[in-house]
Structure formats: structure tokens, C-alpha cells
Amino acid sequence: MAYILCMAFRTTKSQVLLPDHSLVYTKINTYSTLNKDALSAMANQASLGSIKNLSVAFCGERRFMLEDISSYGLAVALPTASGSFGLAANYFGGDGFNESSMALAYGRSLGKIDIGAQFNYHQFKIEGYGAASTVSLEAGLLLHLSEPLQAGVHLFNPTGAAIGKDQKEKLPLVYSFGLGYDVSEKVYVGTEIEKVEDQLVSVNAGVQYAFERKLFARAGVASATSSFYLGVGFLWSGLRIDVNASVHPTLGTTPSMLIAYNSAAKK
Predict the structure, then answer these.
(1) What's 171's domain CATH number?
(2) Which residue of 30, 31, 42, 147 shows the fewest CB atoms closer than 10 Å?
(3) What is the model's pLDDT at position 86?
(4) DSSP 8-state symbol, 19
(5) How many independent structural domains does the chain possess?
(6) Does 1 have pLDDT greater than 50?
(7) What is the pLDDT at residue 150?
(8) Sign of CA dihedral 164, 165, 170, 171
């Protein structure tokens, strides 16, 4: 098993960017003025610039109901007078093979344009083969086309960061374009087009509807994983709990949960 994982890692450049299945909506929400949080802001660090309150988010996903390919993430957004800082940690895998990362991000609003950047430390472990690590950079730009409409671009690993001492494996170059429209306080529609190096273009799209801003539901599709997702959430006094599930036509169901807290904005 370790040998198979090792060979898969050597031949698949996108191994370090395994896409979320039921949590793909967090990436789309980064282009909303009303629905973003610390976790969604990490999809495009420029959106940190418009976060005006402390935000903490934790998520977990049991991919295809298998423990060894589960993933977990924690993100914190801290606003200051000169922009917002973000901290994030992620873990994917099990005892035989796992990936982990830690990140430091910064985003700032410049009026109609927001900018942001993030530094990542990645570590990869394969049982019996040891560990390897590397550092990568990503950056984003967000345009406020109008009050309800936002668009943005994001770039991951423009420097071509390599893994391990021999530097034979590189993290992939990934670039994306996103668009979000807050139809009203209740309805949000968003989409993202993403291109991972040496892979086909992926399209993620979703819609969210809020019932009096307390209870909401969402649905969407993700072409990279050939799946669709459904979810419901509850908001109470700044605390949000989401329960989601995606369905792959062959591999089955992936359940997930997200818990987020957004403090009251400072006046």
C-alpha cells in the first residue's frame, strides 16, 4: 500500500491540492459580501480585506466515508486597522500517507480593489519512506464591480515550489477566476473556474438561500470531482453550523461539517 501511495504521489502533481467534495461552497463564498468567513477567505486572500470582525472556522470531511482520506481544516481571520491577517492549518490522510500545512495570510482593501497574499508550509509523510516539506506562495485580487457583484482572480504557487531535498517533484501551478452575486440578503449565486497545471479546467457553481438569515440551504456542482453537493446550515448569535454532503456517481457520499464563529463587527 505504501508503495502504491508513493508512486501515485510521484506521478500526480495535484496530489497536494486534493479538492474538497462537500466543502467546495466555501471557495465560492469568498466572492460574496454577506456569506464569507475565515475559511472561505483562504480561497482568495484578497477577501480578508473586507472582513471587519474576528472570524474562526473549523471543518471536517470524511471523503467517501473512508477514515484514511479524511480532511480537517482550521482558519482564523483577525482584522486590524491596516488590513486583516489570517492563520490556517490543514490535515489530510491517515497513518500510511498524510499531508499537512500551515499558512499565514494578509489581505487589505484599497477601495474598489482588495489584495491579499499567503505563505504556506507543506509537509508530506509516507509510512516507511519518511517526510518531505516545502514552502509556497499564493496571492489574490478582488474587484467590487458593484455592491452585490464581486469578481476575483487567484494564483497558487507562481514560483514553482519543489518538494524534498532532490527537488524532483513540484507543487502545481493553479490559477482561478471567481464571480459572486448577492441577489438579495437571502439569495447568493457564485461560480469559480479553476485550472490546475496538467489538468482539465474545473468549474464549481452553487446557490445558497437563507430563511430569515437563521436557517439556510445550498446546492451546487463541482466538475473536478464529477459530483454535486447539498447542505443546510443554522446561524445563531454569530455561531454557524453547516452540515453538507456531496455525491459522486461511482465513489459514493462524502459528508462534512463546518463550525464558524463571527464576532460582532466593530463600529
Answers:
(1) 2.40.160.40
(2) 147
(3) 95
(4) P
(5) 1
(6) no
(7) 95
(8) positive
How does the average pLDDT of the chain come out, rounded? 87
Residue type, 1: M
C-alpha cell at 247: 455525491
Query: Concatenated DSSP letters for 52-109?
Result: -S-EEEEEEEEGGG-GGGEEEEEEEEEEETTEEEEEEEEEEE-SSEEEEEEEEEEEEE
How many CA atoms, within 13 angstroms, populate the side-chain half-sphere of residue 147?
3
- 122 in a domain, yes or no? yes
The percent of residues above 90 in pLDDT, for the chain, comes to: 57
**pLDDT score of 198:** 86
State how far the alpha carbon of 83 is from the alpha carbons of 113, 120, 162, 183, in Å.
13, 19, 30, 27
- The mean pLDDT value for 88-115 works out to 93
Quick check: 182 and 32 in contact, CB under 8 A? yes
* C-alpha cell belonging to residue 105: 495570510
Structural domain contains residue 267: no
| Short-list 1, 31, 3, 67, CA closest to 255 | 67
Beta-carbon contacts of residue 175 (< 8 Å; ≥ 6 apart): 153, 154, 155, 156, 194, 195
| C-alpha to C-alpha distance for 190 and 220, rounded to whole angstroms | 9
Domain of residue 181: give its range.
2-262
CA distance to 2, 87, 114, 161, 184, per residue, from 170 (Å)? 20, 24, 29, 6, 43
Retrieve residue 136's grid coordinates: 509556497
Band (16; pLDDT cuts 50, 70, 90): very low
3-state DSSP percent of the chain in helix, strand and coil, to 5: 15, 55, 30
